Amino acid sequence: MAYAALKRSSTMKSMATGIGQSWRQFASVSVGSDLVAAAPKVSLQKARTWDEGVSSQFSTTPLSDIFKGKKVVIFGLPGAFTGVCTSQHVPSYKKNIDKFKAKGVDSVICVSVNDPYTMNGWADKLEAKDAIEFYGDFDGKFHKSLELDLDLSAALLGHRSTRWSAFVEDGKVKALNVENVPSDFKVSGGEVILGQI
Length: 197
Known about the structure:
By secondary structure, this protein is α+β, with helices and mostly antiparallel strands. Helix content is 33%, strand content 21%. The chain has nine helices and nine strands. It has a seven-stranded mixed sheet with strand order 2-1-5-4-3-8-9. The chain has a two-stranded antiparallel ribbon with strand order 6-7. Helix 7 links the parallel strand 4 (107-112) and strand 5. The protein is globular and about 40 Å long.
């Protein structure tokens, strides 16, 4: 039922895509885009406990701190603790972390439209915090700026991210892969992006 709802709700916004191409002709992000410029004044929230949030005065991380001068693999997904995200998407990056490092990747980042405390609990459950940096996009501004947002209200998730991955060098998108529907896991996995670096 949830799978059907995800397929239904995403068909309105999705268009066919090939590996390394933008998923919509009018998307604001594509290969060659500068992610920092595409999402001006947007920050993400590093996964943490509530107490860590309080002690940091609820600090956020500017995109320039994440991307500038670095080689970054980033992948977005609809939600923490959800099916494909938990069973396939994150594990495909976790199991390939040594291969990413061997290719000179400075960080592998998972981002979702969730608060940083949920992302922290999920990362702990997946035992992935040593390999992957988890960030929350609590208000969805990052994904909206890139036009990678999606209304998944039919699956009781509200406004979320579609499923995607990118290789970013010094803020510039070198490869971009976006699934046609968020329940798919065909082009956004760790093995695909590894072959594009």
